[in-house]
């Protein structure tokens, strides 16, 4: 048996390190937001644009950059994206003003969606066909690890050595990922060769299906609700629940455990019953957010709510991604990338609405109430979409092999 089928190639580790750094960049800012706001003398809602601005940039880059580089060699694209990531985080680390900090966040975010979309294709091509799903899972394990371990550690680092130290560390991770991609990902072969001509036209056909657009809207609203509640979580934990600032990183570890478990459980449940899983998870997530808003003043109940919010919030991710791929028969790659953009558009929407509620003087539980309303709206859209899907003429189910062949 060849090395290609007997052992996972080193290129997957490089992709996982890149995913770890990107996940850390996106989420670590939440635990550091009070420090950053104080350092630049800006209000909490203004500081929140460091989150929502990042998310909007991901939404743009995930679609626009993926579409723009469809005719380029994939390894070269991944290297360029990681250079962009390093530059953006370096800008954040040395930023002397809020505007420079925001610019660094936007630059770093441009690589996010395209890296995950193209990286998944490369990961699948690095191994034998029977191991492609495991290879993609290994790359995305970097993102999960960033949430479970990287974010709490980054928050701890920032609180003890200044928030800039966290971004210096992320810059170093980006350099390590860049070196790994250059050395370990092959420059030639099915994983990294130039994609076939005419691919973009084929990819765009997927967006003629109404259910693809329904799926994108459900992603924006459903995931945006959870993220809106999470954006100002550091303020909620310290100002409402009464936790000490030093406790926040450990509470984020608990949240990370919840999302890790929820992500796995959501994927398994979606394999068995996609529609029922998504409806159930969004309904329960709405109830969890309402319960969190009502009991945020109780530290013990807040711990339970944080764990459940992570679990049910990220249990939406596999079924949301599977739903859009189910209806994107013609080309799941760009549709999948568009859904990553939709996740981050939801992040921006949730953070923006949460900031508005704080600016209106409604308190630090108001973003949680707003998140519950957004998630409920996402559930409503999903129910309408499922009803229309049942009435529509059945289309050929999209098999896993079709997704792999289209991606590779």
TrEMBL record:
Keywords: Cell membrane, Membrane, Transmembrane, Transmembrane helix. The chain crosses the membrane at residues 12-34, 46-70, 77-100, 106-128, 135-154, 166-185, 212-235, 241-261, 273-294, 300-320, 341-362, 368-385. Residues 11-390 form the Major facilitator superfamily (MFS) profile domain. GO terms for cellular component: plasma membrane. It holds the Pfam family MFS_1. Signal peptide: none annotated. PROSITE patterns: MFS (PS50850). It is a multi-pass membrane protein. It comes from the Bacteria. This is MFS transporter. It comes from Micromonospora sp. CCTCC AA 2012012.
